[in-house]
Design brief:
Blueprint (H helix, E strand, L loop, with lengths): L8 E5 L2 H11 L3 E5 L6 E5 L5 E6 L10 E7 L2 H10 L26 E5 L5 E6 L1
Parallel strand pairs: 1-4, 5-7
Antiparallel strand pairs: 2-3, 3-4, 6-7
Amino acid sequence: MFGSTPAFSSFSVDDLDAARAFYGDTLGLQVSEEGSGDMRMLFLTLAGGARILVYPKGDEHSPAGFTVLNFQVDDIDAAVDALKDKGVEMQRYPGFTPDDKGVHRDTRGPAIAWFTDPAKNVIAVLQN
């Protein structure tokens, strides 16, 4: 039914300007803004052209209880080091045993590390 229909994912934030700075300046994504006033929203453009809508919810925002975005990298150690150099902290979750860098390494899956955006939405970086 929707196999040939364009689609995009979305998630909310509590501060659109902080999200613009984080996704654009810290993560280096292409960020565009659409709308005006209370109807402002951001579009993140990922490698390959996929777009993600980021919309403001202000005080009504609740961080997603799941990972909203995953970045596949060839070298997770270099990616985590680069994130830390920009002030991003890796998250540690119960049930996972990360190394000193905050990377969870397990033979059952890819090496993965989690961090949050300024609105506390969870993002992952994982080694392909």
